[in-house]
Write a structure and sequence with these properties.
Distance between the termini: 18 Å
Number of strands: 4
Largest sheet: 4 strands, mixed
Strand order of the largest sheet: 2-1-3-4
Helix content: 40-55%
Order of helices and strands: EHEHEEH
CATH architecture: 3-Layer(aba) Sandwich
CATH superfamily: Glutaredoxin
Shape: globular
Bound molecules: glutathione
Radius of gyration: 12 Å
Length: 79
């Protein structure tokens, strides 16, 4: 299960979501417009910044759109 913390209108989030689409990967999106979700993000990663990826199966969590896109391409190659 891939979870992506996002914010409406965030261009960096859009880049990650587009990479997911290209790779055929779907995310459970959590939007920090909700204070509860923002609090949850800060508790997980330490800061309020999106996008933030949680790869539950691999135990990986990360900020930074470029790193997330590289991670997706490295681990979720379209077959
Ligand atoms: N270098 C980061 C930049 C991410 C960034 O600037 N995200 C903004 C939204 S576009 C953010 O999280 N702002 C904090 C907030 O909106 O509370 C990346 O590429 O992921």
């Amino acid at each position: 299960m891939l979870t992506l913390y996002v914010k409406t209108g965030c261009p960096f989030c859009r880049i990650v979501l587009q990479a997911g689409e290209e790779l055929g990967v779907s995310f459970e999106e959590k939007n920090i417009a909700s204070d509860a979700i923002a609090t949850e993000l800060i508790a997980r990663g330490g800061k309020r910044q999106v996008p933030y990826l949680v790869d539950g199966e691999r135990g990986i969590e990360m900020y930074e759109s470029k790193e997330i896109v590289a991670y997706l391409h490295a681990n979720y190659q379209k077959s």
